[in-house]
Amino acid sequence: MAGHLAELGSLPWRSEEVGKLAAVVLVHGLYHRPEHFDMVAERLRSTGTEVVVPELHRGSLAADTAVVQAAIDALPEPAIVLGHSYGGSVITGVRGAGHLAYLAAFVLDVDESAAGLGGASSQLQDAISSEPDDSTSLHPDRAIELPRVS
User: Which residue blocks in 15-81 are alpha helix, DSSP H?
Assistant: First the structure.
């Protein structure tokens, strides 16, 4: 991904001031952390682009969307918002973005969930517990030891 960042400069996503790239919000996937976007974020920052990589895993899709919305709202101009994997689900619900970009991500309709797309196996669906606050968790007794891969 980092090797293709130079190509972003030729896209029509440029800010009015000095031709720099508009602000960018990078939204990681479910099993990722903001640090997974460090190389991309630093490369964009080196061009003068403002980059925000919010921390997800707030307990629900609505809570994660609210964190990303707050990041977008804090920027001085509409941002390019990129969502990877579960991050695609998150960015679908935001307002005020200049552009939404989905990178190997879930692209959902309003009120649709990634779990509802049929991707989760029946074993996984049985292991998910819905909590009273609308978040989900996994039943710890369903965890299994995975073999090490050499």
Answer: 38-45, 61-73
- What predicted TM-score, i.e. pTM, was given to this entire model? 0.68
Q: Which residues, including other chains, have CB under 8 Å from residue 127's CB and lie 6 or more apart?
A: 138, 139, 142
CA 115 to the chain's CA centroid: 16
Pairwise CA distance, residues 44 & 71, whole Å: 17
Among 3, 21, 40, CA closest to 99: 21
Q: Mind listing the pLDDT tens digit for each residue in 31-70?
A: 788 999 999 999 999 999 999 999 998 778 889 999 999 9
* Helix H or strand E segment including 88: helix 86-92
Domains belonging to the chain, first-starting first, are 13-111 (3.40.50.1820)
Residue 34 near residue 90 (C-beta atoms within 8 A): no
- For 82-102, what is each residue's pLDDT tens digit? 999 889 999 998 999 999 999
Read off the tokens for 54.
Answer: 């919010």
